[in-house]
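Supplementary Methods, section 5.1.

A reviewer requested that the exact input to the structure prediction be made available. We therefore reproduce it here, unchanged from the version used in the analyses.
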Amino acid sequence: MFDLSGKVAVVTGGSGGAGRAIANGLALYGADIVVTSRTLSTLEETAAEVEKAGRKALPISCDVADADSVNQMVKKTLDEFGKIDILVTCAGIALRHPAEDMPIEEFEKVMDVNVKGTLLCCQAVAKDMIKREQGGKIITVGSIRGLQGHPAGYSGYGTSKGAVHMLTKQLATEWAKFKIRVNSIAPCIFYTPLTEPILNDPEMYKIFMQRIPLGRPAEPEDLVGAVVYLGSDASDMVTGVILYIDGGTSAW
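The structure derived from this sequence is encoded token-by-token as follows.
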């Protein structure tokens, strides 16, 4: 049920902690992998790891907030592999400020990458899935911050992830007739280079851990099982779901 042999998966943000772990996890279950990032050189390690697992890897430079760049990425993927079975939208940014001081240009940048970028990638991939009439699996990346507020300056990031959750449900309802399942994973804070300043700050660490019943941040590898499940035949009756990988935060 979880075998992904013969599948082609696109993972945006493939050089980041989550994207890299997810690309490797999908490869271990048999998928060939396309990884994207704005800077091509940052994808070299991910691509090498995928190939070490015995799968094909195609790194592509892509700005998810630019429609032309996304369409070119999808075209290159189809030219190489002929299809896309799975899309995981890991590309995203977090710019934190107190709400009263949030620069509007930074708010807009977060929305462009996290919301517009997610929609553009979903649209471009879904068009091919619809054309092939074979269905497919789309997994967006939301966040527990899309469900719950937080005092640490998440007016931009949290709002964008709430929008990603709603977008996921909307796409799931519209594309069900095409057998395209659209779900989201929504982690709590997890270890990446971007979160190190927070997790290395004792006071901030304490604030975050007080909200996670399991008492620890997630690791990028904690996301892999959920993505493999949502990308495989095991989840064929699942669509429109926000799957929280949050150590119990959403149950608090």
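The two ends are 32 Å apart (CA to CA). These observations are discussed further in the main text.
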